[in-house]
Amino acid sequence: MEPIFDRQSMEKEYSSQEGEGAAIALVERLKMGDSLAFEEIYNQNHKRLYFMAVRYLKDPELAADILQDVFVSLWTKRETLDSSQDMGGFLFTVLKNKVLNAIRSNKSLILKHIEISSQKQEARNHLEDELYKNMYKREFDAAIAKLPQKRRVIFKLKVFKGFDNLAVATRLNISVNTVKVQYQRATKQIRDSLKRL
Known about the structure:
The chain is mainly alpha-helical. It has two domains: 7-106, RNA polymerase sigma factor, region 2, helix turn helix motif (Rna Polymerase Sigma Factor, Chain: A); 146-197, Winged helix-like DNA-binding domain superfamily/Winged helix DNA-binding domain (Arc Repressor Mutant, subunit A, Orthogonal Bundle), CATH 1.10.10.10. The protein contains seven helices and no strands. It has helices spanning 7-31, 35-57, 60-76, 87-145, 149-159, 165-172, 176-194. Helix 3 (60-76) packs antiparallel against helix 4. The radius of gyration is 40 Å and the shape is rod-shaped.
């Protein structure tokens, strides 16, 4: 025959009732302005709430500010609290609402920060590109200046003036084959000079 009262379930029920009774008594003390009850509720809940706020906000300072607001709200609204309400659940709901409000109100600031960061990065990239282009142009001009005179003239006519091989050959009164050979040597010499970059 099974016992009518199971000792373990009785202990659980008693401790649960005792825990509920203690929680209700704690809220009642808070409602009456007991600062020690407030401190006890704070100690029981602040770490968990803080880590939740940090997880959603990704900003420890903002999370700490919101947590402070949660407990200020608890203190200022203490007289209207329902004694039977789960304090952890109540504080979580207040935290959730304040986090959502912070996200909404800070959304424009966050977007502005992202935009400014992006603009700064673009400006840096543009500056680096300009510096690199200037450096490359100086090296390119120096490599052209190092070419032998006739080779340099052939290269400039083809690259900067857009002449084809026949036009260069006619203008300089040389063979088309000489133009091809000298142009190939010029491009190889310039390429070799620019490999350092």
